[in-house]
Every structure is written in structure tokens, then in C-alpha cells.
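Structure representation.

___
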Amino acid sequence: MRKADGLFKLIGLCLLAGVLVAGMLFPVVGAAGVMSNQASETVEKTSSDLADIPPPLVTTVTDSTGKPIATLYDQYRLPVNENQINEAMKWALVSVEDKRFYDHHGVDWQGTLRAAVSNSTGADTQGASTLTQQYVKNYLINVVYRTDQVGQKKAQEQSVARKLKEARIAIQLETKLSKQQILAGYLNIVEFSRQIYGIGAAAHAYFNTTPEKLTVPQAALLAGLVNNPINNDPWKHADKATARRNLVLDRMVENKKLAKADADRFKGEPLGVVPDFPAKPAANCIGAGPESGFFCQYVEDYLIKSGMTKDQLYTGGYTIKSTLDERANHEAKVSAEAQVNKTQKYVANTLSLIKPGKDRHEVVALAANRDYGQDQDAGQTTYALPTGVYNTGGAGSTYKIFTSAAALEKGVAGIYSPVQVPDSYTSHVFLGGAKSCPKAGNSNWYCVGNAGDYSRIAQGATLQTALATSPNTAFVELEDRLGSTAPGIDMAKRLGMRDTMASNIGGGTVDPKADKPEKSQSQAEYYGPRPGWAGFGAFTLGFSPLSGLELGNVAATILSGGVWCPPTPIAGVTDRNGAPVPVKEAPCEQVVPEGLANTLAVGMSKDDQPGGGTSAGAASAVGWNRPIIGKTGTTQGNVSATFVGGTPQLAGAAMTFKFGGGQGGICDYGPGNVRVCGSGGNIFGGKAPARTWFGAMKNIMDASQPVLPLPQPDPQYMGGPGR
């Protein structure tokens, strides 16, 4: 009975094969014709997908000179044409996968019937797919449906419908492409394990060579892999890989493409793959290394924010020329790490540098004391420390820049206007502030004191003097004259703190559905005024989370005559064909009058000067002799400190802040000895942050940049006695 069943099954399969042939070649009329037409439409659509959906390629990120620094990819693939693949590789593949490749027209009917007989009688299952059919299937799996598990499953299902569609497409391909093109197409699509796709990437990853230079045994190993890449992985299963390679060599002998003596000799050779693991680059910004990784990450984040999806970025085969100046970035890294050791627990030290300009603000360096990477014990991190809103301690007194700019704009004061510098100050404007004043007669009034003795400047102090010496009371009083925090917050956003002010007060993304304003409101909303409330008077003292890159861009905006531009890491993008790709970037804006910006720059020009400038010590230590704008900042409890400044050619910000835990403030005992130190701290913006900024900028600027003066102030914003 079982023999009869097998016979009937065999007869049925033979009849089915005839129907398949007829169905593929001669569609009939009536209902069968409708079915055939529907099948034809499906085939045409799939054929269109094969033509219109390009394979994933590697995206390359370069520095400003065009030197590659990183590769981004989902599939490591290096395309080659048929002339770049040697004959050994072609014949090894044909011999083991489809020895009648050059004889059939897409479908090997002899092999199909043989496989049908074998499968129906219970022998080993045989696929009988030609290389052309395998090309179709692999293209569907690795390209068209690479992110669609359902589609991938359908492309591999053992069904008559799938085989029919695959065969029809294969026949179509054979009418449009030469055998050499089909062979090259297959070899560019097929997987060789471990995210390695195509013969170009495989030759490099396995043998550190190119497809045209593969030896016969190397070609045999790679040809043997495509049947089962995981099972035949030479690093994990060297014995299976060797057996499979030797089988391919035997098939080459059978196919009369290799002498038996040569095959026997090749069988005795070791596999010869590169040691330990494939020689392929990292698939993400880890490949940019410990210094340039933060910049690469910003490139990725910036392009995604500009509208490109991560999948497009990792599969598009783009060449992204960045604005990274590797020399400047190296100096920034060296300086940041000189102040705070990379393995110092709980302390991050960052430096971001940007070129001012009225049409672009190009980022040239993004550095941290931490290395970019995934080994935390070695001081590595993949958090975007220089660019993201990760300094949750705040910027301290650098936010006094925004109060000053608002005062200039509103006519409240000029840079030479006198300011009050009492030891303590009670605000009657900012009710219910961060620090109440019960002794002043109203528990809702806001009180503030200075972090030092300012008696030497109390008489005759100007706004310019206050910016250099940074008394808290002067700026809260100035904020009082503005009437609320709104002008200062608005100025912060306009000058550059855009992502910062859009984040919540923890530095995270605003969640409108959250039940607490700390999470549901942006910083601009939370710290700003509302009915019966003038806002947080302490805003001018910079206690909120921020991005160091955006703070650096504030200086770039001031030095650009009040023109804000997005801090861009992109010099240009081209697609896989070399055509330019437009990047959607926010347009530059004249956010304050040029005269105001120029005058504010002069107002900020004394921070590095002896006699009171808070960064004078750091400037003197490196022999600084250029005009700059500058402002230091330190937060309550010394949990973070900042320095922001710039020359007409280059601006930026350095931040030293707690990151990842730790109790108490930060203590600064000199370069290389900065750490979290319990309940109190002694760090200030003029210490590690200023030393980081000046240490890097001295070497960068002296190497190539002339000494340039700051712009001239505008009398409209200068003020004077009585103003």
C-alpha cells in the first residue's frame, strides 16, 4: 500500500510539474486565466520590488577633510561588479550550488523533477533551486523583507505557490540580465554570517582581501558558507567549515574546474581566515573611537532630528562629510581629560567648540574626559555628554548672560550702567521663590546672597564689572527690574538654549500626559511667569539642566552679531550614487540686533582679566593673550561648574558636572584631581571648566588663527551713570 501511495504521489508531482510549466508559460482563458493574470501581477510586483528596492549599503562618516572616521550599517556590504570577482569564486559557487547554471534559463527542470522524486520517496530533501532562483529568494529575504519577519517567512515557505512565483521571476531575470550579472548580483546579496553580506565584504572580513584576489581554497570556503552560514562559521565551527570547503573543492573537480591533485593539496591547507573574528568595522559610532565617537553620535542624532530615519541612515550607503576638525577635537579631549581623569567616578568634564558665523555655526569639536565606548570600567560611555541635556546640576552664573542681554534689549541697563551689589538681596517681585525670607517680613519673598566678598566693587560697579566678577545679588536685582523671568527665558531660547529650554526640569522629554508639572512642562514653562507668579527668580543663577553644546552656541551667536544658527556637524551628504542629499536644517535667525550682540560681547570681555575676572587664573596659567568673551558659572552646593567663551573665530563651553551618582559636591584640587567629595565642594567655573577651555583653545588658536579684536559696542546699549 505504501508503495502504491508513493507511486500515486510521484505521478501527481509529475502532473504538477507539467501544470507549473504550463502555468508559467501559457496562461489559459476563463477562470484559470484570471488566476494566471493575478499571479502575473504578483510576479510583476515582486520583480518591480527587486528592481526598485536597493540593497542596504554601508554609510561612511568622515571628518572635515574627507577622512573616514566611522561606518554605520545594518548589513556590512561592499558591492562589486562582475569584473571584480575572480573566476575561482564564480566556479566554486556554481560547482556546489548550480552546476548547470550556464545551461538553464532560470529554472533547472531536470533538477526540479529529480528533487521532486527524491523528496516524495522520503530521501534527503533537495531544494533544486537554481542560482537565479536563489538570487530572487535572497533578495526578498535580505533586502525587500529584511525588517518583515512575515515576509521573510513567506519567501522561504515550502509551497507550490512560492516556488511558482520564484520560478517565473527567475525566468524573467534571465531574459533581462546576463549570466555574469546574475552571478554577481547573487554574490552581492547573499549572507556570509555575522552581518556580512556580499562577496566584497566577505573577502575583506574573512581574509582581509578583495574578491578579485581570492585564492581557490578561500573561494571554496566562502562558496560553502552560503548554504548554512551559521553552521559553517569557521571561527565557531572550524571542523564543519573545513569539511564544507573540501566538499566544494571536490565539486569543482567533478565540474572539471579544478585538477584533483590541486584539490587534494588545497584540502591540506588551514582555513586561513583572519584570527579570532571577522575583520569588519564597527557597525555604529563605536568605530569612531574614544575621541571622535561623541562627534559621530551627534552627526547621527542631528540627521535623525533633521528628518532622516535611523534605518535610512544605516542602510542608505551615504557619505556624510562632517565638520569635525580632528586636531581641534584631539586638543579638546586632551584638555578635558587632563582636568578630570576618564575613570573618575561620578564626574564628567566636557568641551564643545563651534565656529561663529552669520550663515552657519559649524561644530568642530565635541570632547569629554570619558572615552566614547561601552566599557564603563575603562571610563567609557555612549551617553552624548557634550551635546545632550545631561548636566542636571546646571550652568550656574553663565545664565546671567541672558538676564544681561534682556536688560540691554529692554533698556533697563547698558554695559556701563551702575548696578547694585549688596551682600544680600530680597526680591519683592519673585514671590514664593526657591528661598523664602521669613526674617524680611514675608515668607514668600525671594532672598539671595553672594558666594564671596564683593565689598571691593560694591561702589561704582557696572554691568560689565558684574559680568566679570559675578555677584548674585546684582543680577537678581536686575531681574527684578525686568519684572519677571520671561525676558531672560526668552533670551535664553533665542540665543541658543533651544533643546535645553524645551526639555523638562529633569532634562528629559516633556510628557504632556504626566501628572506632575516637573515632567509635563518644559523648562521655559515651568520657570516662567504665570498669573500671580513672576517665575523662579533663581533662573538667572542657572540651576536647571542644560546642553553644553547649546551653551557654547550662545557664545557663537553673540560673536556672530546676534545671528543664531543651529550648531551643525554636517558639511555635506551624498547618496550611494554620489548625488548631493539636502539636509533639513533650521534657518539662521537674527535673534537680537547686531549692536546689542556686539555690546554684550564687550560687556563679557573682562572675565579673563586680572583684578577680578573669575577666569583670570586659568587664562594666565596658559599665557592667554587674545581678546575673548567669557563667563563662569557655579551651582549651589558645587555640584557643577561651567565656562562659556569665545574669540571671533571659535567659541565654546566647558562643563564639569556630576554624572551617574555620588553624594555631595565636586572638589577641585587641581588638574587630574577633581572628584566628588562628600557633603561640600569647592569647584568653581574658573577652575576645571576654565582650565579645560583655555588649555584647549590656547593650542588650537595659536596653531593657525590670527589675533582678532572683539566688535565695537553700540552706544545704544552702552549706558553709563544714571542709566
Remarks:
- The longest strand covers residues 347-354.
- Residues 459 and 701 are 37 Å apart (CA to CA).
